[in-house]
From TrEMBL:
Designated name of the protein: SH2 domain-containing protein
Family named by the database record: Belongs to the PTEN phosphatase protein family.
A molecular-function term among this protein's GO annotations: phosphoprotein phosphatase activity
Major location category of this protein: other
Keywords: Cell junction, Hydrolase, Phosphoprotein, Protein phosphatase, SH2 domain
Any Pfam family: PTB
Organism of provenance: Ridgeia piscesae (Tubeworm)
InterPro entries for the chain: PH-like_dom_sf, PTB, PTB/PI_dom, SH2, SH2_dom_sf, Tensin-like_SH2, Tensin_PTB, Tensin_PTEN_phosphatase
Database matches in SUPFAM superfamilies: PH domain-like, SH2 domain
GO CC terms, sorted: focal adhesion
Keyword Phosphoprotein: yes
Domain SH2: 58-165
CDD domains to which the protein is assigned, alphabetical: PTB_tensin, SH2_Tensin_like
């Protein structure tokens, strides 16, 4: 994603504190491996910036399979650890406590809690990591990105991963100074931001929901004989709402959408992608990113809406993570933001 370090310090101060976690697992726990080329691929090259780095809590490189089982068997479903695989050098083992034994697994007898600890292999690829043997699993740019996405939706796993709130003293303790925000209020106080490609804004009259996102995208694509002027924007979510800052002031300087005006946020229901080659939009590489958008009431109106659409720029900052973060933090007493991530 172009420059994911954000803007300069003065501008970041004006926007407030951001979560821009860039530190990987401590150097002693990094792994490099070969995937058929001479260049090593470093799995922990970045972590999702929409949450604090929790890898110190769940990445336990030195524990054995048996130690993982012993640790997890009495834990709640969704509890997990990731360790270095001894059988497959360069790969990782994911041990996960599940609610029930899969139907296609024959019980082996013995402790039933042990049977509820399931094991999955995370294999390296030339572009990142993925769950081995799962055709519906994408490749993730980092191990942290894989874990974070599976904490949102299980995909091929039996259940979602439950991100730990602190380190556990009974399994391979490492430095646990970073705390994970465990409530919407904490996330609201911290906010989060990254760069995305701003595509267009379209009037929707009273339309909202996924239909509004789909219509805005269709109308924009239909008019690509005269393509919209796109620009890279700093997309910040906080307790005040969503703030867009045009990094190069190409189309605007800053736009703010108060939380009480935002009625929907979601990915394109038709799963379309935005393809664009390098130009003066503010990024140096081409993009083929998933399209998403949010709907907000126009200023001074109680019925007229506008839909603002974007494309993801970085696989480590996918549209699904952004949409889910909006859903998670823009929640107040008696009010829930509707989202769509399918």
């Amino acid at each position: 994603m172009g420059d994911l370090q954000g803007l300069n310090l003065d501008l970041e101060s004006a926007l407030g504190d951001l979560i821009t976690v860039t530190s990987p697992v401590s150097p002693g726990y990094r792994r490099q491996y070969s995937t058929g080329s001479t260049d090593g691929v470093e799995v922990f090259h970045s972590t999702p910036r929409f949450v604090r780095d929790t890898s110190k809590y769940w990445y336990k490189p030195g524990i054995s399979r048996e130690e993982a089982i012993l640790f997890l068997k009495d834990k709640a479903p969704g509890t997990f650890v990731v360790r270095d695989s001894n059988s497959f050098p360069g790969a990782f083992g994911l041990a996960l406590k599940v609610q029930q034994v899969p139907a296609n697994v024959m019980p082996k007898g013995g402790d039933p809690q042990v049977e509820l600890v399931r094991h999955f292999l995370i294999e390296p690829t030339s572009k990142g990591v993925r769950l081995k043997g799962c055709s519906n699993e994408p490749v993730f740019g980092s191990l942290a990105a894989l874990v974070y996405q599976h904490s949102i939706t299980p995909l091929a796993l039996p259940c979602k991963l439950s991100l730990p709130q602190s380190d556990t003293p009974d399994v391979d303790v490492v430095d646990a100074r970073v705390e994970t925000p465990n409530s919407a209020s904490q996330l609201l106080a911290q906010g989060a931001a990254c760069n995305v490609l701003y595509i267009n804004s379209a009037d929707m009259e009273s339309l909202t929901g996924p239909q509004a996102v789909a219509k805005a995208i269709s109308d924009t694509i239909a008019g690509r004989a005269q393509p919209p002027k796109t620009t890279v924007v700093h997309f910040k979510v906080s307790s005040q709402g969503i703030t867009l800052t045009d990094n190069k002031r190409k189309l605007f300087f800053r736009r703010h959408y108060p939380v009480n005006t935002i009625t929907f946020c979601g990915k394109d229901p038709e799963n379309r992608r935005w393809t664009q080659k390098p130009d003066d939009s503010g990024f140096s590489g081409s993009t083929n990113g998933t399209i998403f958008g949010f709907v907000a009431r126009k200023s001074g109106s109680s019925t007229d809406n506008a839909c603002h659409i974007f494309a993801e720029l970085d696989p480590d900052q996918p549209a699904s993570a952004i949409v889910n973060f909006v859903a998670k933090v823009l929640i107040g007493p008696g009010r829930i933001i509707k989202t769509s991530v399918s």
